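Archive transcription. Copying these from loose printouts into the bound notebook so they stop getting lost. Printout 1 of 2:
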Amino acid sequence: MTDQKKNSLSTDERYMLRCLEIAKNGLGTTAPNPMVGAVIVHNGKIIGEGYTSPFGGPHAEVNAIDSVDDTSLLSKACLYVTLEPCSHYGKTPPCADLIVKHKIPRVVIGLQDPHEKVAGKGIEKLLQANCEVVTDVLEENCAAHHKRFLTFHLKKRPFIILKWAQTSDGFIAPSKERRAANPEPYWITTVASRQWVHKWRSEEQGILVGTTTVLEDNPRLDVRSWTGKSPVRIVIDTSLKITNDYNVLDGSQKTIVFTRKTDTPADTASIRYEVLRSENIAQEICDALYRLQLQSIIIEGGTQTLQSFIDANLWDEARVFTGQISFENGVLAPVIKGRILSQQTIENDQLTVLKND
């Protein structure tokens, strides 16, 4: 946001913008809870801030209230929060009850919570306690920030990010002949771009690939070049061709294998098998991941897997690297149409981010 736009914001919008800034600190750790930001203001001064703790810990409102040195000021303060305070007991007590307990007289909310256990009930509790409630402040910004949480609860599927790297002439992988002659890894992008990918992995709950990617590249699908938790590995292996000597079945992190085989190996503590029964594999996988409470996934290939989700219109963002090298022939990159959100250069690579409108 430019300085000119910031200067045109109202007071409520300025504090909501701050809520959004600190809420990003919860990226990759709060799911299935939303990554909320909260700010407490008294007489034009911020006296408390907080964001959602890793899942199982306190919510943003609790952390913001706990950060206030003089709690007597709460009864004369305003609480800003990116998402409607919860009204039900989960891992923690309702945030709406805590706000009422401290008699905070005014609450400004960026976005109403679509979760069926909240969905206006938090606002209703506050109103019943004679709290002034202002809603829909920077609503579009808050919706963009909470895109994973909203997609999961409104569309009943994970937020889906497609990621691939393509050569300057539009190939995602070399030909089988070229790979057979030289089986070494073919890096299309720079080290810096690959580090970005590991950062992205740390931010999402799952990472999905197809059988060919595993058989040809033997990826680990973990977070190495960044700090953070490795996502759940999700592998499409319809015929169970992947053997236990591949990295994805090493048991080092939780893994879900989707297959059409009904005689699957027994599930273990780290590996789970899900049987596909319909022709629309992409939709069936989305349904299963929703049932398994995965709010976001990043799909890293290959072309057939990526294209199946594109053709089913089951994607939200695509992050496409274009490198400087060329293959002249090989596996063509997926075909996709979307609105360009951003374009930037990372060393010698071009990163284009598309949104599915």
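Printout 2 of 2:
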Amino acid sequence: MQYMPEVIVRPSLAVAEPDSTYLAPRPKPPTWSDRSRQMFDFMDIPVEFRDKVPYRREFLDAYAPNVSSLLPASLADSLHRTARWENGPHHFDGALTLMTEFLTEFCWSSSKLEGCRFTLAETASLLKLEEPLQTAAAEKSEEARIVVNHKRALELMVFETHPHRVSFNLLLDLQGRLMDGLIAPPRCGQVRDIHVHVSGTGYQPGRIPALLREMLQQIAIKAAAIRNPVEAAFFLWIHVAYLQAFADGNKRTGRLSANMPLLAGHCAPLSFGGVEASDYVVAMLGVYERNDVSVAVDLFEWLYRRSMQKYPWMLS
């Protein structure tokens, strides 16, 4: 049965003092709900025996910002209260300087999900190099380029985006930075005009460029309208990856853009550190094949609470 976002009438957000739940021990691996465990069982079925499913635009069309909620509304509000800093670095343009540790872990963890074999220490060493040396390393190694591209895309999002909010052009620009030198230049920063295949799934992304462009614009507009930065982050992570609007780099664009509402909303960032690739795959496949966010919700909560533990200075 097709999953539709739960429609909930939500009160206006009231920012309270951060609670202490982010300090509670988090299980590892994440604790999966009954529905999530069912999704893991479903994904054990060989892909050749699963139905082919197209992109379902109603999954996005039905979402009404600040009325619908992909995250359970109580969870989104609790995470927001916990993640928002009151006395931290409010000056957004200076956030990157203060988040060197976050930048390193994000570049490492997101690149690792794309097959990069760099260790965290190797990633940190690369990112400490001067720009010409980073460029030289990227020209010699695809894995180095993946890491350096993540760093430059994050810098674009923090330093060069005005106003500090999600937009259609920002999503294009982020993908362009992330995929620079990894795919043909005409495919960077552009909605795709070619067909793509997502391996290991029965999901068949849309093929019409005009529709892809329309849906990506709708994603940006709705994300910018969501008042809760945590819900907006989850929304972007899910929908950018699901649409597959680009020739490549869709999932990494979703991970990076998810941090935009968090940083703009003075919330702790999401590094994706500690994620198991197999769990991440099932979270994505649940969305691709069933529009079911159960695994994604459980994984997101665990990852975000981990990020809040990792960067407690942001919650001072």
